[in-house]
Amino acid sequence: MKHLLHRALRTHMLSIRQWGAHTKTRAEIRGGGRKPWKQKGTGRARAGSRRSPLWRGGGVAFGPRGVAMECKLNRKESRKATKIAFMACSKKIQIVNPPILEKPSSRTISQMLPPLPSRPVLWILHEKNPSLWLSCRNIKTLQLIQAEHIYVKPLLWAKQIWISHEAIPILENQLNVKMME
């Protein structure tokens, strides 16, 4: 179980990681196809290309490559890992229905909701309500997610989980779990 959770979390973290640094080798730099001067008889050191790492404008010998690493996780494994994470978090779950807002306002939403702890809170909703999402994105300790898009990382990250009443059947269907008796 722990191994499956670890693999699911690692797969997700590798997929969102940005591999920024990337340098070109002598093969990737434009030009340098012709030998700069003949091999013998000039008195200079031999040279085969203008794009040698020794030359100005040449390639980088052992620079960072920026190759994205991937870790594959099967669909059944992913669903099982999400189910395990959800069952492990079952004591942290509360039912909190989203308020109806005419226009986005972080102040209004923070007054309407129960007091937020200083620890992270995950709020699982049945659909994406634009005004609610815009209102909540400014609150640091609150993360919104749709029930269809639930995955392991936010479940493990959250210290408290709020679920809207309409999201319960979606989660039950997706995870094959009976939540409400």
From TrEMBL:
UniProt KW Ligase keyword: no
Bias type Basic residues, positions: 32-49
GO MF, one example: rRNA binding
GO biological process: translation
Region (Disordered): 29-51
Alphabetized Pfam families for the sequence: Ribosomal_L4 (PF00573)
Coiled coil: none
GO cellular component: ribonucleoprotein complex; ribosome
UniProt keyword list: Chloroplast, Plastid, Ribonucleoprotein, Ribosomal protein, RNA-binding, rRNA-binding
Protein's UniProt keywords contain Acyltransferase: no
Record-linked InterPro entries: Ribosomal_uL4 (IPR002136), Ribosomal_uL4-like (IPR013005), Ribosomal_uL4_dom_sf (IPR023574)
Family according to the record: Belongs to the universal ribosomal protein uL4 family.
Function text: Probably binds the 23S rRNA.
Name the record gives this protein: Large ribosomal subunit protein uL4c
Organism: Cyanidioschyzon merolae (Red alga)
